[in-house]
Amino acid sequence: AVLKYTNDSTWTQFADSAVHWTALTLLNPDAPLTLWDMSADGNWIAAAGPGSKVYLWNRNTGQKLQQDLHQQNSLRAIAFSPDQSGIVTAGLDNYINKYHFSAMGSEQLMTNGAPIVDMILTEDNRLIYCGTDGLLMSLQILPTRKLNVLSENFSGRVSKLATAKMIEKDGTEQTILIAGLKSGLLKLYKLNEDKIIFFRELFTHRGMITDIQVTENGKLIVVALDGKVSVWDINRINDPSYLPLILDDHKWALSATYIPDENAVLVGSKDGSIRHWLLDAEAYAQKLCTYLQTQETENTLYINGQEIEVDMENLCPKPTEPIK
Questions:
Q1: What single DSSP character describes residue 318?
Q2: How far from the centroid of its chain's Cα atoms is residue 304's Cα?
Q3: Domain ranges (residues) in the chain
Q4: 1 CB-side CA count, 13 A
Q5: What is the pLDDT of residues 42-83, one digit of tens each?
Q6: Is the domain 1-117 a CATH 3.40.50.1820 member?
Q7: pLDDT-derived band of residue 176, with 50, 70 and 90 as boundaries?
Q8: Which candidate, 92, 17, 108, places its Cα nearest to that of 299?
Q9: Which of 291, 262, 260, 267 is closest to 278 using CA atoms?
Q10: Do residues 110 and 139 lie in contact, with contact meaning Cβ atoms separated by under 8 Å?
Q11: CB pairs under 8 A, 24+ apart, for 133-138?
């Protein structure tokens, strides 16, 4: 149910003009995996399901670990701690725990007054989480712990949280909090140290928000159960006249990830399919043509196992200017 792209030659293999997808069996869980995170250095993958077990896999060494965190109800969120010393988990049992890699044990960070819906870790070492009680909380983890109530009347119908950086009209950078609701509504807040300031609602989706991804180049990708994926330019999101790019025909879309090199979005659905959307198909075609022109092989493409002859002169005219 979760997709993540990593620009790593060990994960994506290129041969001639074809792109090969390689499926690797990384973990053998005894329950479906619905939660997923990768460490900042890209070495560790953590996955969890509806129970209390977390599965860890080291991409470099191949080491696999399975830890039962003994939380009394389903895990709803997992994330690597800001200092990468462990994994923070939250669940429907109201507890937020941290599993320490060095001590091979867990500690309780916080007890919430209601089941936790979602949580995120910010760049300034804060854990922001919300529960079904409508409270939005901020827990400073490092260097010392400090708990703040960001909002006492936050929507209790939140399904996903995310943060992003937005450039204001005066050129200053503002951190924003994005809350996706079960109704499909998106609420945007300016996120400060001790409070949030609401500034916009986006009525784009009519189904529960299942995933929110923020890319390094300022794109906001929102996935919902209405069968649509919306792609936003974060720096234009406060303009009332601005409309997002809509990727349609995704029944039961659950998760998305962005591929920077292709300017493309991969969307995973509940039916097991993964769809590959090119946000700029013309530019990608030009890159492909440029690549083919550098090869000494015959003008042949292999697509889905079929050999296809390509008229290179007409399909890929030589550009008048270099293509970066």
A1: P
A2: 28
A3: 1-117, 157-279, 280-324
A4: 18
A5: 778 887 766 667 788 877 787 877 777 665 557 778 888 777
A6: no
A7: very high
A8: 17
A9: 262
A10: yes
A11: 136/196, 137/110, 137/112, 138/194
- What Å distances lie between residue 272 and 2, 63, 252, CA to CA? 11, 27, 10
Q: Do the beta carbons of residue 74 and residue 51 sit within 8 Å?
A: yes
The CA–CA distances, whole Å, from 290 to 18, 43, 315, 318 equal 14, 33, 11, 8
In order of 47, 212, 317, the CA distances from 3 in angstroms are: 12, 12, 35
Fold agreement (1-117, 157-279) = yes
Contact 114, 135 (CB under 8 A): yes
- The predicted-structure confidence for 97-145, as pLDDT tens digits, reads as follows 888 877 777 777 777 878 888 888 887 778 888 888 888 888 887 777 7
Superfamily of domain 157-279: YVTN repeat-like/Quinoprotein amine dehydrogenase (2.130.10.10)
Distances (CA, A) of 315 to 212, 285, 304, 312: 37, 10, 20, 5
pLDDT at position 292: 64
What are the beta bridge partners of residue 267? 256, 275
- Tell me 236's DSSP state: G
Q: Mark 73-87 as b/e (b = at least 16 C-beta within 10 Å).
A: ebbbbbbbbbeeebb
One-letter identity of residue 60: N
